[in-house]
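Wed. Picked up where I left off yesterday with VOC domain-containing protein. The coffee machine is broken again, so keeping this brief.
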Amino acid sequence: MRLAALRLRVADPAAVARFYAQHFGMTARPEGAQWRVGYAGRDSDLILMPGGGGFSADRGQRYWKIGITVPDLDRAVDQLRRDGLEVSVPHQFRDIGYLCHLSDPAGFPVELLQWTFQDSPPAPQQSGGPFSAARIGQITLRSGDISAETEIWIALGMRLLSVQEVPSHGFDLHFLAFTDETPPDPDLWSVANRGWLWQRPYTTLEFQHVPGAEFAAVPDLRGIEIDGLRAPQKDAAGTALIPTR
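Structure written out below (C-alpha cells, as returned):
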C-alpha cells in the first residue's frame, strides 16, 4: 500500500498547479476539472479540486500542511526568493530538523525540510536545480487522540517510524508510513532516526498530537488516496480514505 495523493479543494486548480510546477519542479497535468501535481517516484501527489477558495490556515484545524523534503534547504530558499516568494527564515527547530515555511496561492501551508540537520553538511548538490531530488515527504494532520489515530492506520498496514517530543510547544509528533523499512535505531524516540526519516523516498503521515485537543474539520481537505485500499473508509476524525482508481 502507498499514500498516493492528498486531495485539496481550491478556487483555481490550474493556477495552483502552475505554482507547484514553476517553483517546486513538480509535474502538473489536468484530470478533467481537477489537476494532479507531484514528483516522479513513490511519494504522494497533490490533487487540486475545484470549488474551494475559503481556506485560511489556523492552528485549531485538523489539516496542517504538506512537507517537501530537499537535500539543500538554503539553496532551495534562495531559488524561491529569486522567484519572488515570501519564505520564512530557515532555522534548526530543536532536534527535529532544519526547516522553513511558506504558503501556496490557495493559502495552504508548505513546509520545506532539509534531509540533514543545519550543523550537518547538506546532501551533495543535484544537477537540475534545488528541487530535482525533492519529494512530498509528509502529509500533516493534527490530533487530540493519537491512540485512536494510530489504531486505524496501523490496522491498514502502516508502521510507526518515529515519535518526537516537543514539550516547549505542548505537542508531540508521530510519523507513520506504508513500508517494511525499520529505523536505524529501534528506539523510535531517538534523534538518530530523524535524518534517516527525512530522506525516505515515500510520503509519511505525520500527526501533530496535542493531548485532549479538539480540531476543526477543514472542508477543503477532500481526503487521502491510498494505493491498495479495497474500499472507501474514514479515519478517526472522519477524513475520507479513498482507493486509487
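Quick read: The first helix runs from residue 13 to 24.
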